[in-house]
Amino acid sequence: MIDYPQVALDFMNRDHAEFIALHEKLLDLLHKQAPDTEVDTTLNEFVEHTRRHFKEEERHMQEAEFPPFPVHKMEHDRVLEDMQNRIAQWNQDRDAAALRNYLEKAVIGWFVQHVGMMDFVTARYIAGKNPKN
Question: What is the pTM of this model?
Answer without folding.
Answer: 0.94
